[in-house]
Amino acid sequence: MRKLFTVLLVMAVVCGTLFASGSQEAAGAVVGNAAKPVIFFNRQPSDPTTGEIQMDVMEWNDKTYYVGFDAAGGGAVQGQLIVDYLASADPAVVDRNGDGVIGYVLCIGDVGHNDSKARTQGIREALGTWNGSTDPGQAVEGSANVGGTQMKVVELASMAMTGLDGSTWNANAATDAMLNWATSLGNQIDMVISNNDGMAMGCLQASNYPEGVPIFGYDANADAIEAIGAGRLTGTVSQNVDAQATATLQVIRNLLDGLTGNDVIAKGITEPDQYGNKISADMEYLPETKALLAANTGVNASNWTEYQAGARDAGIKQTDAETKRVILTIYNSADNFLSSSYVPALQYYAPLLNLDLTIVQGDGQNEASCLDRFTNLNSFDAYAINMVKTNSGWDYLDKLQY
Ligand code: BGC
Questions:
Q1: H/E element holding 172?
Q2: What's the number of domains the chain is made of?
Q3: 78 lines ligand 1 (CB under 6 A)
Q4: Does residue 89 sit within a domain?
Q5: Is residue 107 part of a domain?
Q6: Does the C-beta of 124 come closer than 6 Å to ligand 1?
Q7: Domain range spanning residue 168?
Q8: Pocket of ligand 1 contains residue 218 by CB under 6 Å
Q9: Has residue 116 been placed in a domain?
Q10: Which pLDDT tens digits describe the chain residue by residue (402 residues)?
Q11: Global pTM?
Q12: Residue 157 in 3-state DSSP?
């Protein structure tokens, strides 16, 4: 059914494009919505259970791309950050109850999200607690080098962290979980690990958070970086939000400027574009999934000052490109990473690239909260989509077929 639809769609796009180019001189460029750029970002079109990328969505048209970061690589960076911390720690200090076991609790985030899965896997692989599943409760006994002594590692508890309203990656749920864990597990807890900074900061909000227990997050949000500086958070991982936000916009700019082929994912990204812009950080393009990805870096007490807020990419300057209109969805207005890091970066770089952004923000649980405001589509030149559910891509694309 989808195949037939895709074939019809391709015919429609081809006809639309022919019609558009034929009538271009006479009536100005008329491009059907189905032929306009569509960039998915931060939430990759994928199966929430298996994590498999939905290539039917990614092949919607030749202007469809995903911009994110290297999720698997990031999980490994997070695991390494924790292992490095343990290797240089004093076992007598880390093992709070002296039972010879390093116990940790894990905030998972969203069990149906690729990024969350990759981080759970990276952490468990590094600590030897991985048994092939990213589900809560599915860890085995592991071991790690703690200051030169090989010690047992046990995942005492883990939770997805779903809010009362159904939203995922929920920081309040993490505060509640930490309250309960600190009460029920006491000084068996030697480490707290969280798949994002929002939940890590949520754990630190628990009134009974065990003082001095190391805690790791992910995202390098401004408040988390400051918490590292203040000695409250032990480490986090930067997924290079500036590179991702700029790349999302740059790919749109390139497509709207008529670039094709490799230029779409190279200009302004790995080589200067016609305006002299180029993202400073490294990005990698995976053609098989049409995914443009930023690299991750570990952040801890040794380098946190390099990640303090306000450091924008000097490689991106004001252009004189023609102004274009883009509608962009954000799955949850309350998501810590998107609201405190990603959206501010978009708002900084979009005017430099002369992209006029209309941002609609959802509630993190109902697709309709974004979809119902994904409207007036004819008046936009391009679409940037952050879905509530990672397998909702077609709900948006279906609205572009006319
Ligand atoms: C971030 C999370 C965020 C999620 C939203 C992830 O890449 O690390 O903090 O909640 O994206 O989709």
A1: helix 171-185
A2: 1
A3: no
A4: yes
A5: yes
A6: no
A7: 72-238
A8: yes
A9: yes
A10: 454 454 454 454 444 444 444 333 334 456 899 999 999 999 999 999 988 999 999 999 999 999 999 999 999 999 999 999 999 999 999 999 999 999 999 999 999 998 999 999 999 999 999 999 999 999 999 999 999 999 999 999 999 999 998 999 999 999 999 999 999 999 999 999 999 999 999 999 999 999 999 999 999 999 999 999 999 999 999 999 999 999 999 999 999 999 999 999 999 999 999 999 999 999 999 999 999 999 999 999 999 999 987 789 999 999 999 999 999 999 999 999 999 999 999 999 999 999 999 999 999 999 999 999 999 999 999 999 999 999 999 999 999 996
A11: 0.88
A12: strand
